[in-house]
Fold these 3 entries.
Entry 1:
Amino acid sequence: MSGRIYFDHSATTPLDPRVLEDMLPFLADSFGNASSQHAEGRKAREAVETARAQVATLLNADANEIIFTGSGTEADNLALIGAVRAGVGPAHVITSPIEHAAILKTCEHLEESGVKITHLPVDSEGLVDSLDLEAALRPETRIVSVMAASNLVGTIQPIAELAEITTEHGALFHTDAVQAGGKIPIDVKRTPLDLVSLSAHKLHGPKGIGALFVRRGVELAPIVFGGGQERSLRSATENVAAIAGFGVAAEIARKEMEAEATRLRNLREKIVGVLADTVPQAYVIGHPQKRLPGHLSLGFAGQEALAGRLVQLLDRAGVAVSAGSACNAHHADKPSHVLLTMGYDSERARGLVRITLGRFNTEAEVDRFLEILPRLVADLNPDMDWTTSPQLAGPVLVSTSA
Ligand code: PLP
């Protein structure tokens, strides 16, 4: 795939070669079961515990507050179902309508068993308002779950504020930090987060391994039953290679976070700056500044219905971006539920092109992309006169720099 430009890091990221190097021994000679007492088993256990400490440090948590799961999806399921099942009496869960399916579908499942669910409104930039959370909290609210940052529009939520309100009320606060983890600082000692979901493949680690931070003292019921691994919260023989890879990926992300965030923001800002001149109908979707560093969601006024086509043409030209999130790829022709809840009409809610930059992207790639994209957009419907397009009344490109 050399020569291609990969700008779809919200879907998944390439494995960092440093991570691969750390994983390889556990896919070959160091094959022990981390529960075995012999030397092979002890070596595997040591790798798991090293990784647990590395993942914990990313969140400023203690190592024994990290539970490894099979994915970010499973961490989300364990947080919500585990919190509800650990309690007694009627349960109420508060979440946002722009969450990943791992939260929304889990809430649907809980609702079928009698749990009341409230979806907080979001504004046109995808932000949850703390006043709405205050109004929604009830005596029986068991858990509030709001994502740290959106996979689709990149908006970063005011998690600290929402967590404080929730904690004062006496409910648990969970955040799905699958997109935010390793990209923006998350500190569980400074912020009263009870549960935090992470996934290694979003931070240049392997697929099929996630983690749930569970604050000491928080009661969860398991959703997987078996041999009692991971403090009986996630039974299954540990995937040692993936866990070791997650640990190193978390450590690299933590050490490089600040410099990398600045680099990615600058690259993103370059894209926005150039497109403002070359593609005047482009507009930013999501919050212009409160967004993940490498994340840019764009709409093209008047061409929203052609977003899927544009993504295909970019692919043919050697650039991987996405129209919506990878999880919704099977429903690409449908308006995005996230954009609909942000107040977009059904036409514009179909028109998102997501460009998400990552560790190995270079300025040369951005420059090449900026040569390709305007040509492809112009070719989509060449007869259109942008200056008279009624859709131009919508938002235009604004700076995404802080
Ligand atoms: N939560 C969010 C916000 C995501 O973006 C994703 C994956 O795209 C998930 C959860 C699911 O994580 P995983 O792919 O590890 O199951």
Entry 2:
Amino acid sequence: MNLPKKATIIEVGPRDGLQNLKTFVPTEAKIEFIKQLKSAGVQEMELTSFVSPKWVPQMADAPAIIEECLDEETRNFVLTPNQTGIDRLLSTSCRNAAVFVGVSNTFNKKNINKTTEESLQELEPIIRDLKAKNFFVRTCISTSFYCPYEGKVEIDDVLALCKRFEGFGVDELSVADTIGMANPKESFELFSTLKKALPNIMITAHFHNTRGMALANVFAALQAGVDRFDTSAGGLGGCPFAPGASGNVATEDVVFMLEQMGIETGINLRRVVVALENLQPHLNKSYESQYFKLAQLDTNQHV
Ligand code: HMG
Ligand code: MG
């Protein structure tokens, strides 16, 4: 079996996890959540996003989050799709940008109000400029398997888009199953293709667990040579403009599976559980995480 000795968890809970929640989570609670996840050993994290507060009200407090949560030890990302967001990012001391675009045109239009090609035209000079300024640039590729509006997305289209971003000079491609519809065979096929075609770029897998296949997809991606996974504490998450998308694969479930297989993550699960317990009173929902549920039943036995 082709398995790595270590894997990197990119915690997207503070961004993907919270962005879709209708009840506003107080900024202080978000900051505490982020700090506790870092103390659990998370090395890379999407802190928040610079997007329109009219479109995504939950992320309106991005400046305060960035102000309080940047540190030297963690690779802290701020997600944004356009020049306005990059201008705001440049006014902070964050030096890790995450831009995003959908393979599917219809999805991109619903999410960002631009066609995929229009987004590419806008992002190319942005990325080249960020690289000239020594930023780490991550690009999130949405609807890489299925689109909620257009259906099945072809591997060749994902590869072509990824290659465009390779040409712009990005450091990382986070390739997403936005609506949680991919199966492990598709995950293995796409990630094998990308790893082979793009050997000099970090490839990260981003799975949503809408149909319960996310952990199986993580395992398939591992076998394709992927050792970086976007995960969300508590299994929170979902894109507001992708109908039917539910939470990301839970950080705790992925870490537990990987560690059980002898793959080191550096994440302390007890501390992730504490971070989730502290966040819980501010949420109007329960967590979609098998590990968290077990931990609540019998802390000593399962954490
Ligand atoms: P628009 O209406 O076409 O934009 O929306 P606009 O340029 O006409 O501007 C409209 C207003 O938004 C203006 O303000 C701008 O200043 C402001 P107003 O004059 O009305 O007061 N604005 C901004 N404000 C803050 N930050 C910005 C920004 N840009 C413009 N960056 C826009 C276009 C992109 C703004 C809008 O469509 C938007 O905000 N979309 C949000 C999309 C989003 O956040 N989706 C979720 C994240 S992606 C995701 O979850 C997928 C991922 O997890 C991977 C996966 O699972 O697939 C990454
Ligand atoms: Mg997502």
Entry 3:
Amino acid sequence: MTANLLDFDLEGLAAFCERLGEKRFRATQLFRWIHQKGASDFEQMTDLAKSLREKLGASAHVQGLKVVSRHDSADGTVKWLFDVGAGDVIETVFIPEADRGTLCISSQAGCAVGCRFCSTGHQGFSRNLTTGEIVSQLWFAEHFLRQHLGRQERVISNVVMMGMGEPLQNYSQLVPALKVMLDDHGYGLSRRRVTVSTSGVVPMIDRLAKDCPVALAVSLHAPQDALRDNLVPLNKKYPIAELLEACARYQTAAPRDFITFEYCMLDGVNDQPEHAAQLVSLMKTHAIKGLSCKFNLIPFNPFPASGLKRSDMPQVSAFAKILMDAGIVTTVRKTRGDDIDAACGQLAGDVQDRTGVDQRMAAQRQGMLGGIKVVVAKGTNV
Ligand code: SAH
Ligand code: SF4
């Protein structure tokens, strides 16, 4: 088996080049070809000596993920399903905005945390993605979009690890992938434009602060342990006070940054004025310990098995007002791509989606077909 070079950060690629008896700086050239130009064929890499290209041809390859399908939303959001083998499918979503292009990346096939309001959680855990599988989502999307949109320059300016899976339960594969995103010879994203979202794996928050302090988003969803235990089962292991202390420690590594707290608004469950008031006092207590935060209220995206309902907009606004009146910066997340099931928590990677037919039928049932283009690329090897 030859090595897939998408599995390496620059340091790893340099070590690989050394093993081939090559100078480490060759790795920089190779890395730029792969990530900045999207090349996968060593013969294209004309500034590398022929002898090196031959060695690479014999010992390495650059292999992205297999695209199952692409779904284009009326609002410009694009969702891809990728086949990662053994019946597992993962999802990646591109969200264009006026001033940025955000890619939402998966870190696992399924998820072991099992949050009640998340369809990935309901699906259960299948396996960790490799560094190469995480990086491939960006590699593929960036170069596909450049070609598709006829752009020479960078299309993706932000990455959020908010697709399927709990990134901090796949730490060893995650960190090199983050390094590829940040590397000036790779995607050159600033660390404030790469966000790891976590349900609260406390020890790994501390490790990330040392290894790769990118922006941190924490999925809080409840102001007290009894409720959070029920919504995010990991809370039984790492309760709220411990989690917020880890967040405050994280900020000593990145002092000028905020931690973003995500809060999924569930009708009658966690969206009452008293929940907002409890959040305010919780945040005040921890502000003294150095925590500065922002809140992002996410309208719940329902799916049948959850038995939960989305809070209505007046409820969300009233909740936001209590936080804002207390001086907490609060935003309400716009739902994007819900006509293609690309919104938060709808990423189930259902194998049924492979044909695109189920999605079309679901959309038809909901009378939403207008504007959806389902592009099926079954078995395409990218
Ligand atoms: N596992 C990580 C990252 C993936 S989930 C985490 O939990 O943070 C990304 C975000 O989507 C999280 O904030 C999660 O709480 C939110 N989410 C999950 N299911 C959702 C749903 N059905 N509706 C709205 N947001 C949801
Ligand atoms: Fe896993 Fe995040 Fe979904 Fe919870 S919300 S089940 S941690 S992907």
